[in-house]
Design brief:
Rossmann fold; 4-stranded antiparallel beta sheet; two-component regulatory system; 5-stranded parallel beta sheet; phosphoprotein; 231 residues; WalR-like; alpha/beta; DNA-binding; elongated
Length: 231
């Protein structure tokens, strides 16, 4: 059974980064919310429950350290992943001393941020079950990154699995080029042929197991549908 979607608070004053994070985490099955300053973050944390927080340090008015201090004062615990351009050891030690559990320096890969978040959430939830996605004979265990097709193991590259995950979270729905680029590349702007090549690799791997369910919608994107060649 799929785990309940985790609520993630993104605290980031750079609107482009915040919007990209929001869209990416939503694609990955999380329930994100955003605050663009420390005071807004503390207010949201006081009114609502979140399973984890992605927190910048350089925030206007009330910085990330002050947010952590506010949580300490009211004895509120939440897994915190610091996301900041500050790479000095003293900055990291200060964040950890105030209760942060992880620290990621910009620029960063969206996939690494997701992986770190899942580790934090797994620790917080204890021995929770990993999420498994299922569609048309495909099963994808997110925790172990294992994929089976018609009950047999399917060996995919990291990016092929990332594309497949997006498709399986939106079965039979149109998935745009921009959506997939955001899931695969942190800056969302690879070479024009990069995504097409990755789609080809995934389609080839599936066709080798008699699955032809990736449909191209010219000029719009792709869909994952049930295969007409299922054995």
């Amino acid at each position: 059974m799929a785990a309940a979607p985790a609520r993630i608070l993104i605290v980031e004053n750079d609107l482009t980064i915040a919007e990209n994070l929001y869209a990416f985490l939503e694609l990955k099955g999380f329930l994100p919310d955003a605050a663009y300053g420390g005071h807004a973050a503390v207010a949201l944390l006081g009114d609502q429950h979140f399973d984890a927080m992605v927190l910048d340090i350089g925030l206007p008015g009330m910085d990330g350290y002050a947010v952590l201090q506010a949580l300490q004062r009211r004895k509120q615990t939440i897994p915190v992943l610091m996301l900041t351009a500050r790479s000095q050891l003293e900055d990291k030690l200060a964040a950890f001393s105030l209760g942060a559990q992880d620290y990621l320096v910009k620029p960063f890969a969206l996939e690494e941020l997701e992986a770190r978040l899942r580790v934090l959430l797994g620790r917080a939830r204890g021995a929770s079950k990993d999420e498994t996605l299922e569609f048309a004979g495909i099963e994808y265990d997110i925790g172990s990154a294992s994929v089976t097709l018609y009950g047999q193991p399917l060996h995919l590259t990291h990016k092929s699995r990332a594309i497949l995950e997006v498709f399986m979270r939106h079965p039979a729905e149109l998935v745009s080029r921009r959506t997939l680029e955001l899931a695969l590349w942190a800056d969302g702007s690879p070479s024009p042929e990069a995504l097409r090549s990755q789609i080809h690799l995934l389609r080839k791997a599936l066709l080798q197991r008699n699955f032809d369910g990736i449909q191209t919608v010219p000029g719009l994107g792709w869909k994952l549908v049930a295969s007409a060649r299922q054995p």
